[in-house]
Design a protein that fits this description.
This protein is of the alpha+beta class. It has a domain at 20-117. The chain is 29% helix and 17% strand. It contains eight helices and nine strands. The strands form three sheets. It has a five-stranded mixed beta barrel. A two-stranded antiparallel ribbon has the order 6-7. It has a two-stranded antiparallel sheet with strand order 8-9. A hairpin with a 5-residue loop joins strand 8 (277-281) and strand 9. Helix 3 packs across helix 7 (262-273), helix 4 (212-225) runs parallel beside helix 8 and helix 5 packs across helix 6 (247-258). The chain is globular. 38% of the residues are buried.
């Protein structure tokens, strides 16, 4: 479909992400009201939730900044862009996809939305939102779940962790991509505090037999290396209309404080997984019980001591330069 005429956006001096135009809303997706698949002006397909801005003032900024932090840590996340959806595009969408059960109070409007690039660029490609039972061993980048747990603890993620799984060409393996960062930094309104266990992925089998201590130390060093100046620089990519004047400074300050608590918080989360029964909700909706067995390679004492030492010294040590070997996102 041919896009309407538009001018290419250039990254501004503030380094905000270039805005794409929605050429067409192709179809409605599961995952929330007005979650849609959009063909954008760069030729790629994006998943867009057209109601996000009504959930709270920070949700779009949270999505973007959370994605950037995950990318910095080397965790598999889809590429993202701000996507402008016009009134005419919304009208065409409503004409094709509005149903009698929909309320006009929930009618989406035009605006600048967060677009997450579809992990498969085939419109009808199959992607798992929940893995079949006993498939945790088929996740090619399963160590990313430990890295994402660290980030969710660091960023005060309030809601449950979400991921989608793209099958390999032969269907034997899957790659996890992490989505749904809107409830980072204290939630939609930035006022909530994370509850114990809330940062874990619902299917806790993904953490079984992971060398959490080794993986954790790799990512912790990268988190420690990021100071407030680096965070503010990274946050400039977030469109200014997605947040108020104090948001970025508040988030940067919160992250600087919380990173010294991450080792302690992670140890508490792992106690919920290691050696205790965990309820797993399968794709059929039935609750299964299993036991998590997490190998921590001597525990998290080393990481906690390092975090404490860094905090005492003001966090001046640089990162050791290690990066995750399993954290590279698959090509979209």
């Amino acid at each position: 479909m041919v896009c309407d005429r538009f001018e290419e956006n250039v990254v501004s001096p503030a380094q905000s992400a270039p805005v794409l135009k929605a050429c067409a809303i192709l179809k409605r997706l599961s995952g929330g009201l007005h979650t849609v698949l959009v063909k954008a002006s760069d030729g790629f397909l994006y998943v867009v939730k057209m109601m996000d801005s009504f959930q709270g003032p920070n949700v779009l900024a949270n999505e973007a900044l959370g994605n950037e932090l995950a990318k910095y840590l080397g965790i598999s996340v889809p590429a993202w862009r701000p996507i402008e959806i016009s009134e005419s595009c919304v009208d065409k969408y409503l004409l094709l996809h509005w149903t009698g059960s929909d309320s006009w109070l929930d009618r989406p409007g035009p605006g600048l939305y967060f677009g997450s690039r579809a992990v498969s660029q085939e419109e009808d490609a199959f992607v798992y939102h929940e893995l079949p039972e006993n498939w945790e061993g088929r996740i090619s980048n399963r160590s990313d779940f430990a890295g994402m747990l660290l980030l969710d603890l660091w960023a005060n993620q309030i809601g449950p962790r979400k991921a989608v799984f793209l099958p390999s060409a032969d269907g034997l393996m899957v790659t996890a991509f992490f989505i749904g960062n809107g409830q980072m930094f204290g939630g939609y309104w930035g006022r909530e505090e994370q509850q114990r266990g809330s940062a874990l992925y619902p299917d806790r089998r993904v953490y079984t037999h992971l060398d959490v201590n080794r993986i954790f130390n790799t990512w912790l060093q990268k988190a420690i290396a990021m100071d407030e100046k680096m965070l503010l620089q990274m946050a400039r990519i977030v469109p200014r209309q997605w947040h108020d004047s104090t948001y970025l400074q508040e988030v940067a300050s919160q992250l600087q404080v919380r990173k010294w608590r991450v080792a302690q918080l992670l140890a508490q989360e792992m106690n919920l997984v290691s050696g205790v029964k965990t309820k797993i909700t399968s794709s059929t909706g039935m609750a299964d019980e299993g036991r998590g067995a997490v190998s921590q390679a001597g525990g998290l004492g080393t990481a906690r001591k390092e975090a404490s030492r860094q905090a005492d010294s003001g966090g001046s040590d640089s990162a050791n330069g290690e990066s995750s070997q399993n954290g590279e996102a698959a090509s979209n």
